[in-house]
Amino acid sequence: MLKVENLQSGYGPMQVLWGPDIQVKPGTVTSLLGPNGAGKSTLLWTILGAVRPWEGKIFFEGEDVTFEPTHKKADRGLVMVPEGKHLFKEMTVYENLLMGAYRKGAQEEREANLELVYSLFPILSERRTQRAGFLSGGQQQMVTIGRALMARPRLLMMDEPSQGLAPKIVMEIFETVEKLKEEIGLTILLVEQNASASLEAADYVYVMHEGVIMAEGTPEEIEASHEIKEAYLGI
Amino acid sequence: MFFEQLSGNLVQGLILGSVYGMATMGLSLIFGVLQVVNVGHGAFIMVGAFTALILFQSLGVPPILAIPVALLIGMCLGMIFYYGAVKPLVSPSGAGIRKVGRRQLGKAAGVFVAVMIAMRILSGVLDLNIAFSIFIAIILMYAFLVYVYGGRRQEKGPELATLLVTFSLGVILEEVVKQIFTSEARGYNWDLGKLDLGFTVLPFTKILASGGSLTVAVLLYLWFNKTRAGMAMRSVVEDSVGARVCGVNVDWQYALSFSLGIGLTVTSGVLLTMFIPVGINPYMGGGYTLKAFVIAVLGGLASPYGAFFGGVVFGLLENGSYTLLAALPGGEPFALTRFFSFVMLLVILLIRPTGLLRRKG
Ligand SMILES: Nc1ncnc2c1ncn2[C@@H]1O[C@H](COP(=O)(O)OP(=O)(O)OP(=O)(O)O)[C@@H](O)[C@H]1O
Ligand SMILES: [Mg+2]
Predict the structure, then answer these.
(1) Cα dihedral: B211, B217, B221, B224 (round 10)
(2) Among the four residues A169, B14, B31, B251, which has the most C-beta atoms within 10 Å?
(3) Which atom of ligand 1 is the closest one to the Cα of A38?
(4) Is pTM beyond 0.80 here?
(5) Is A157 on the interface with B (CB under 8 A)?
(6) Which CATH class is domain A1-77+154-235?
């Protein structure tokens, strides 16, 4: 589904990604772990085309999309839940969800997707006319996920969706991730700091450090290696 | 007598205020989307004023019909200026964070140097004067500062560079218009009759100007809130990273909102001349730039409707205070109202730096 080869990029003169290779198989949850500043977000932004790749290739569903702009990738169903929510705080919950369905392809399925989002997060249906900025942190994260689902994603990239949330809400978010995989067969690339919860949710794991993939494998393999856990995951 | 005068002035202030408000919406839109303060704002109002004047005097087009023409001229100018000068400085990269590369800055500077050289060559033909040399000096300074300062300190560079660029664009416009029409003040006389309210007399052209402004404001509001394209632009104002992940082409929205902002500003120049059809000259914009800054701050800087509201408040205060100041013995009320704008700006910045409309929290 997604294949990244030797990707290099950065900001200005500073290189952040030093050629990671990753692959995401359809219908799976792939988890990307690593400490602060490892370049996880940068990798997602580069895949999405918001940070320009310097070297390497990005294939999406077999096609080379390395230099495609973000809005074109959105048309292909490459959608992201960004770190730090980035909601439209002055807009209502409903308007936020509508913005999720901004691209032409998603417009046609708007009503069906809206129903899906409301059934996943019934609270959003109740709060649909409220301004997003007035919701609690957990509800705001639901809006962000809902907004991404409105875009009819084929691959959903989630950047630290549980960041800054209460433990109970974190559980709910991870349950949602599993539900999306089980019930609608969504493919997910999940970036997390919460290593233990994402090891549980993932089918395959990459561990990143200073812009390089240091280890990869099934959650069991990662779980089995004390070195990796201690050196990079702090568990 | 005093109250009759005051209410008369307030009615005048209300309708002038709506035109002021409209004349600030473009500034707020550009700031809201690009975080660029258009220092050349008044020059675009001047372009609108000349559009109305020329269309009326040489083609007999009533100024109200000059509005679509002005909007079109403004949007074209906006596009040209955006791609020619502003884009390299604001072009977003990464997760919505603006970065300017040395190469891009070099390009922007290059464009300006090219314009400068072209102007120099022209000046041999047209015999230009001192103001023009000053203009050239400004451009040179701009190119130099942008290249040296902007390239070295990437974080701070963009703001300074955009101020210099928009300032230079304003100066370019003023000088070009001056070369064509000279700096003599002009006016036109479009008479539709008057409405007598008893305590004050309103020419229909003024009422039309106010109605036109209100119409533009309402249309903009509907566009922003009810259409897909308008929602996209609003989403960029609210959170450009969020807009990007929704598949909004943020770079294009930047171009579009700059163009629309300039279009609105040029349009407001037409409406302003319908209110004040005299004193049209290349340098008329300066005063309006100042007023627009005060109004934009009143309305919260980044919100076009806030700006409209701010304009109405400003019009009421300005004209209301005129009556009061005129009642003072020995004062020069007209000059004092100018001073009043400055004082108001300072006071607002001290009390409510986020603007009058902005919600707390
Ligand atoms: N927009 C930016 N401009 C400049 N440098 C950046 C930018 N974003 C990130 N960086 C730098 O790039 C490096 C990698 O950052 P990145 O955000 O990709 O890490 P991360 O793995 O997502 O970390 P975290 O877990 O804290 O989110 C860091 O050194 C960071 O300071
Ligand atoms: Mg990150």
Answers:
(1) 140
(2) B31
(3) 21
(4) yes
(5) no
(6) alpha beta
